[in-house]
Design a protein that fits this description.
Shape: globular
Protein name: D-alanyl-D-alanine carboxypeptidase/D-alanyl-D-alanine-endopeptidase
Number of helices: 11
Radius of gyration: 24 Å
Structural class: alpha+beta
Pfam families: Peptidase_S13
CATH class of the largest domain: Alpha Beta
Largest sheet: 5 strands, antiparallel
Helix content: 25-40%
CATH superfamily of the largest domain: DD-peptidase/beta-lactamase superfamily
Order of helices and strands: EHEEHEEHEHEEEEEEHEEHHHEEHHEEEH
Number of strands: 19
Family: Belongs to the peptidase S13 family.
GO molecular function, one term: serine-type carboxypeptidase activity
Keywords: Carboxypeptidase, Hydrolase, Protease, Signal
Distance between the termini: 62 Å
């Protein structure tokens, strides 16, 4: 069912100089203290925001900005707001809004085990991204309570999510990283595994220690690393062949350094799930002989089941933590109950449902073009105008409190936890972040203290500047909005 992108020994550099692209912000954005005391009229907002966007640093970049009154819809500032931009994780606003509208905040994803015949069980995965080893233990305890102590064959039915496990338009470095884990009918521990590289005596290869010993037998290790002298610089490269089972480790770690953990995405989610389930069964004293992956079978005799948290909690993880796996899963779940043409993927069906649902919400279909649910693809194109329409539409929806609660709060939670601290925007800006190479975005709500509530979208594209520089400018704009007063 699944197709794989084949990449031979793509290097992922892990060091102080060459690290994974961070998906969350860890540095506080400095805002000049004097700004917090300013007060501006609505007519002055444009010139103040232009002064930030038109700095020499940003001469060649593209800005897309829209600021409106949330209640009246009056536009207070616009800059190429109807043009397409790469939105990064602001795409998650569309995905989560459509899912809440389509499925409801209380929707849960069920994973079931059915008795097919004596000794033969079939586990049906329906795309729950929240499953952990603890949930698998709950499943196996239910089996034990039913008197099941021996399983001849356990079949993993992956028919619910029909899609490439890796989105074809994601970049190679993304699918090699923990934030680009594959999505499917079965997901456990967010489809990630971890190894620890432990320094030895100087000149010796680093020791590879498995956090999950069950995975050690799956991978072949080509260890070309070395333990360097004390205080040497950490320079490590881990390469994984996406179509095979080889991990190539190169570089050095100082003998005095602490063990270095590397988290990587699995190659085959179905069999990874079965391996983790086998471990859980063993702990309950249930023997398991054969495993297989197949589709179809009876759903008459359910002998065990677990459910995800409600969708309201899944969208919180999606937006507050900017979790790509959860976003793609939510998109696929929207396709589960929809008719599907032969060969049509769950992603494409989910995107059709998304478009229909957002149109009903008042979002213009021509304002966006999306190919995934997370925003990791650079092929996604969304206008600031469309993002504001989503935010405005959801503010009038019955799901408004749930949707707003799923967004990071400036200086408080998620990907905004370390932004806006000590500024007038702390605690009153609620917005979704987005970052990929050359792109920074922020769209959400602002309860301006001396003005009416605002809705805004700010996207900057095509920049060679570091993300921290772009974020600082975006944050300055938001702080400027807090200075609005009625004139």
């Amino acid at each position: 069912m699944s197709q794989y992108i084949r990449i031979s020994f793509l290097l992922v550099f892990i060091s102080a100089q060459f690290g994974f692209i961070p998906q969350t912000v860890t540095a506080q954005t400095p805002i000049a203290p004097t700004q917090a005391n300013k007060s501006i009229c609505p007519a002055q907002l444009g010139s103040n925001l232009d002064a930030i966007a038109n700095q020499a640093t940003f001469t060649r970049v593209r800005w897309g900005i829209l600021v409106q009154s949330l209640s009246s819809g009056q536009t207070l500032y616009t800059r190429d707001a109807n043009k397409y931009f790469i939105p990064a994780s602001n795409t998650k606003l569309l995905t989560t809004a459509a899912a809440l509208q389509q499925l409801g905040a209380n929707f849960r994803i069920r994973t079931s085990i059915y008795q097919q015949e004596p000794g033969v069980l079939r586990v049906v995965g329906r795309g729950d991204p929240s499953i952990t080893d603890a949930q698998l233990t709950r499943l196996t305890k239910q089996l034990k309570a039913k008197g099941i102590t021996q399983i001849k064959k356990l079949i993993a039915d992956d028919s619910y999510v029909q899609a490439d496990v890796v989105q074809p338009s994601w970049q190679w470095e993304d699918v090699q990283s923990d934030y680009g884990a594959p999505v499917g009918s079965f997901m456990v521990n967010e489809n990630l595994f971890t190894i620890r590289l432990v320094p030895q005596a100087v000149g010796k290869p680093l020791q590879v220690s498995w956090v999950d010993g069950n995975e050690a037998g799956i991978w072949k290790i080509l260890n070309l690393s070395t333990t360097a002298a004390n205080n040497s610089k950490t320079e490590l490269a881990v390469a994984r062949d996406l179509s095979g089972n080889v991990l190539k480790i190169q570089g050095q770690l100082a003998a005095s350094a602490s063990p270095f953990s590397v988290t990587l995405p699995v190659v085959d989610p179905n069999y990874f799930f079965l391996r983790r389930l086998r471990v859980a069964l063993r702990k309950e004293g249930i023997s398991l002989q054969e495993t297989a992956v197949a589709t179809g079978g009876s759903t008459q005799n359910e002998v065990a089941a677990i459910q995800s948290p409600p969708l309201s909690e899944l969208v919180k993880i999606t937006n507050i933590d900017s979790n790509n796996l959860f976003a793609e899963s939510v998109l696929n779940v929207m396709a589960v109950k929809q008719p599907r043409k032969p060969g049509q993927s769950s992603t494409s069906v989910g995107l059709e449902v998304l478009k229909t649902t957002l149109t009903q919400l008042g979002v213009n279909q021509t304002g966006y073009f999306t190919v995934d649910g997370s925003g990791l693809s650079r092929k996604n194109l969304i206008s600031p105008e469309a993002l504001v329409q989503v935010l405005r539409g959801m503010s009038k929806s019955a799901a408004a409190p749930v949707f707003r609660a799923s967004l990071p709060v400036g200086g408080k939670t998620g990907t905004l936890k370390n932004r806006f601290r000590g500024t007038a925007a702390e605690g009153i800006v609620v917005a979704k972040t987005g970052t990929v190479g050359g792109v920074v975005s922020l769209s959400g709500y602002l309860d301006a203290p001396n003005y009416e509530p605002l809705v805004f979208s700010i996207i900057v594209n095509q920049s060679e500047q570091p993300a921290r520089v772009l974020r600082q400018a975006v944050d300055e704009m938001v702080v400027t909005m807090t200075q609005l007063r009625r004139c």
